[in-house]
Design brief:
It is a single chain. The protein is α+β, with helices and mostly antiparallel strands. The chain is built from 24 helices and 14 strands. Helix 10 packs parallel to helix 16 and helix 19 runs antiparallel to helix 20. The longest helix is centred in the first third of the chain and has 102 residues. It is elongated and about 150 Å long. It has 4 domains: 205 residues, Up-down Bundle (Substrate Binding Domain Of Dnak, Chain:A, Domain 2); 113 residues, Pleckstrin-homology domain (PH domain)/Phosphotyrosine-binding domain (PTB) (PH-domain like, Roll); 127 residues, Orthogonal Bundle (Annexin V, domain 1); 303 residues, Serine Threonine Protein Phosphatase 5, Tetratricopeptide repeat, CATH 1.25.40. The strands form 3 sheets. The chain has a 7-stranded antiparallel β-sheet with strand order 4-3-2-1-7-6-5, with helices on one face. The chain is 52% helix and 9% strand. It is found in: Endosome membrane.
Length: 795
């Protein structure tokens, strides 16, 4: 029974596991999923009760009976053997006594004595034997009864627990039974309707009133999911054989894309339909063909019928017209923006469609968890699913359409569920949020007659508010004329220092040179450079037999909330670190926030040094952007931008550096992403001819180098010393940056060799750059640098 019970339990467990797997497959149907989860849990409880029952049987029945048989019965059997042996001796003694002759008194006496002794021994053992028989018979009764009674108690408990469990489940089962009856009725109704439709379609076919493409000839430019039209088309390959392949095409987000199967990667045929023309083709052998022509390539497509061909041509033309309507007068601005800060989907577009949908839910949840983001920034509608990536706000679908009409120089709109997001862009969204941006753009809205619209207001009211807010900027507290409220403190710059023992780690020559060149800059800038020198000391060399070394470092940076050494605190040559903070942060920075972790054995000390705080009201917007970029304060960068700051502002007093270069020196990847999303020129140089990628390479900021390469940085440009980024990285022995630059250069050469119709990039190149981005944001602990000594031993 126990062996069969174990098999039964094992099979039951597999059955319960199967029910739970089925529940996971039915997650979309809430009713079935809930039912299977409840029943699976109940059956698992029954399995647990069965395990307890069989365990009780093992202890109460099997073990007790085993003890009775193996000990008590075994002792009895040994006594019986002794009794049988003495009985045989008695029989032998009786025979010898009967055979003793009369004339031999000696033998008679001996036989009589042996018989007497043997009889006494037999009677003694017989008494013991009878006693053991009686004792064993009595023990047998209570041993068996006790074991069986204990087992029956276990059975009673098992069925009692099962009854209680199922009794609690009974109301739900009754409710489910009633719902099941309704489902059966609905299914029967649906079946009848489908049969009726089937009969109608058959009748139309018989009357030649139905064509294959009737159900697929419609398109909708204003579709809520962004898909204007989709369906199968034949595509002529660009190879020498000009083969035709059937692919699933769709028009979405002003792009023409296709995929081989449902879960395959989306391939972009035309990145921007506004640059294209479409025309029917009658000069080739195949019927129903049309051609989509872009400035760089053309794509020959074939529909299944003439009606479908006309529908596709009209859908492309309508999408082109719609795209022009949504972004009037901003065509060249958007093209310039794409050159400086291309869509982040350029790397993530190779991800799997299923992963993108799962990731979309995660992105939606993360972005909506930021303060104020669960409502539309402009009208307050709940559960917004669109975002302005350069402003860092969430929007409802109607407000997102209005933002699109403003132009990309005001707002870049992206879907939180349909589009792919790079990690640095997601972190940028989490740094800002609706509450932060509304504090900037709606600072004086209470004092004006114009009221903020609600979700129930008309589109016209919302459009008036959004244009007044972001284009005319009526509600800003302008820099230089800020009227402070009584409960608001002036926003000022302040300075703190963290002292530490000097480290004796050897610094690469390229970095020492960069440090000497920084000698004539301001103390705050010198502070940051020294800190970056400390980081550079931990530089590692590439070890080719370890793949993880490709991703050995990625300086993600952090916002103003983190002022620790890992966030890039400034360090000075006298062994101290300067921390540049401003705004409300001045009053909240504590000694703990100023602690700096150092690889050396020296301990950091913090102290407050007196400095003259600078009033932000007196700063030029460009200078505010410049300083905020170095201090990693994204909200103040947004406020400077709202006040008209030029993201490419040049500081003539500091070697013509730009805010983007300052963000590099400050060590913040997110600040760089913010500037690039707002139109910063990734190739703008300072007075020494150094672009942001040169500075990032000198400082060993692998993450920023990766970001600039993705944003189209020119790695062939040389500075006044004739150094390009690759030669700088080689001199500094920074294998990570060398690897990235060489991969990017190799990919560039491959694309040039492929010609204008080549693929968008090598798969290995895309995978490595995507891995850098994702590991930096999701698993930063894997990106810690190894020591120089370990790297040299690897080499």
């Amino acid at each position: 029974m126990l062996e069969a019970g174990k098999t039964y339990l094992t099979t039951n467990k597999h059955f319960v596991s199967g029910i739970r797997d089925l529940s996971q497959q039915c997650k979309k149907d809430e009713m079935i999923s809930e039912c299977l989860d409840k029943f699976g849990d109940s059956l698992q409880e029954m399995v647990n009760y069965h395990m307890i029952l069989f365990d009780q049987a093992q202890r109460s029945v099997r073990q007790q009976l085993h003890m009775f048989v193996k000990e008590d019965v075994r002792k009895f059997k040994e006594s019986k053997k002794q009794f049988d042996k003495v009985r045989e001796d008695l029989d032998i003694a009786l025979v010898k006594n009967a055979q003793a002759p009369r004339h031999k008194p000696h033998e008679v006496e001996e036989a009589t004595g042996t018989l007497t002794i043997t009889r006494k021994c037999f009677r003694h053992l017989a008494l013991d034997y009878v006693l053991q028989i009686n004792v064993l018979q009595a023990k047998k009764k209570f041993e068996i009864l006790d074991a069986i009674l204990s087992f029956m108690h276990a059975q009673y408990t098992f069925f009692q627990q099962g009854y209680s469990l199922l009794n609690e489940l009974n109301p739900y089962m009754k409710k489910l039974a009633s719902q099941l009856d309704q489902l059966v009725i609905d299914s029967a109704v649906e079946k009848r309707e489908m049969e009726h439709k089937h009969a109608t379609i058959q009748q139309r076919v018989s009357l030649n009133d139905f064509s294959y493409d009737d159900s697929k000839a419609d398109f909708n430019v204003d579709a809520p999911n962004g898909v204007v039209m989709e369906g199968y088309l034949f595509k002529r390959a660009s190879n020498a054989f000009k083969t035709w392949n059937r692919r699933w095409f769709s028009i979405q987000n002003s792009q023409l894309v296709y995929q081989k199967k449902l879960k395959d990667v989306l391939t972009v045929v035309v990145e921007d339909l506004r640059l294209c023309t479409v025309k029917p083709c009658e000069d080739i052998e195949r019927r129903f063909c049309f051609e989509v022509v872009s400035p760089t390539k053309s794509c020959m497509l074939q529909a299944d019928s003439e009606k479908l061909r006309q529908s596709w041509i009209q859908a492309v033309q309508a999408s082109i017209a719609s795209a022009y309507r949504e972004t009037p007068d901003n065509y060249y601005i958007e093209r310039l923006d794409r050159t400086a800060s291309p869509s982040t989907s350029s790397i993530d577009s190779a991800s799997d469609c299923r992963e993108r949908s799962i990731k979309g839910e995660t992105i939606l949840q993360r972005v909506q968890s930021i303060a104020g983001n669960y409502q539309c920034c402009d009208c307050g509608q709940t559960d917004p699913r669109w975002a302005s990536i350069n402003l860092g706000i969430t929007l409802c679908i109607e407000c997102s359409g209005i933002h699109r009409s403003l132009g990309v120089h005001f707002s870049k709109v992206r879907s939180l569920t349909l589009d792919s997001w790079e990690p640095e862009l997601l972190k940028l969204m989490c740094e800002l949020g609706n509450s932060t941006i509304n504090q900037i753009y709606e600072a004086k809205c209470e004092h004006l007659e114009l009221k903020k619209p609600t979700s129930g207001c008309s589109r016209q009211d919302k459009e008036i508010w959004i244009k007044a807010k972001y284009v005319e900027k009526k509600f800003l507290n302008r820099l230089g004329s800020i009227e402070l409220e009584n409960d608001r403190k002036p926003q000022r710059w302040s300075l703190k220092k963290c002292h530490r023992n000097n480290s004796t780690t050897k610094v690469p020559s390229a970095h020492r040179k960069y440090r000497r060149e920084m000698g004539n800059v301001s103390p705050a800038m010198l502070s940051s450079a020294a800190t970056l020198e400390r980081k550079f000391r931990r530089d590692s060399l590439f070890c080719p037999d370890e793949l993880d070394s490709l991703f050995s470092y990625f300086d993600t940076g952090s916002g103003p909330r983190s002022l620790s050494s890992d966030s890039g605190l400034g360090g000075s040559t006298d062994g101290s670190n300067d921390i540049l903070v401003f705004g409300t942060v001045v009053d909240s920075v504590t000694e703990e926030e100023c602690e700096v972790s150092e690889d050396s054995s020296g301990e950091a000390e913090t102290e407050q040094e007196p400095s003259d705080p600078e009033d932000l009201r007196e700063l030029h917007p460009g200078l505010l952007m410049y300083r905020a970029s170095h201090a990693r304060n994204i909200p103040f960068m947004a406020e400077a931008l709202a006040n008209g700051a030029n993201v490419n502002w040049v500081n003539e007093e500091d070697e013509s550096k730009t805010p983007l270069i300052q963000a590099v020196i400050g060590g913040s990847l997110i600040a760089c992403e913010f500037l690039l999303q707002n139109g910063a020129d990734v190739n703008q140089t300072d007075i020494r001819g150094r672009a942001p990628i040169h500075h990032a390479t000198y400082l060993g900021h692998t993450g920023q180098v990766c970001l600039f390469l993705k944003r189209g940085a020119n790695q062939h440009a040389v500075d006044e010393d004739g150094q390009d980024p690759l030669s700088i990285a080689v001199q500094a022995a920074n294998a990570d940056i060398v690897t990235l630059l060489r991969l990017a250069r190799m990919n560039e050469e491959m694309r040039e060799a492929e010609g204008p119709f080549g693929q968008p990039g090598d798969t290995t190149y895309l995978d490595i750059f995507r891995e850098f981005s994702h590991m930096a944001s999701n698993n930063p602990e894997k990106l810690s640098r190894r020591s120089v000594h370990f790297s040299q031993s690897c080499r």
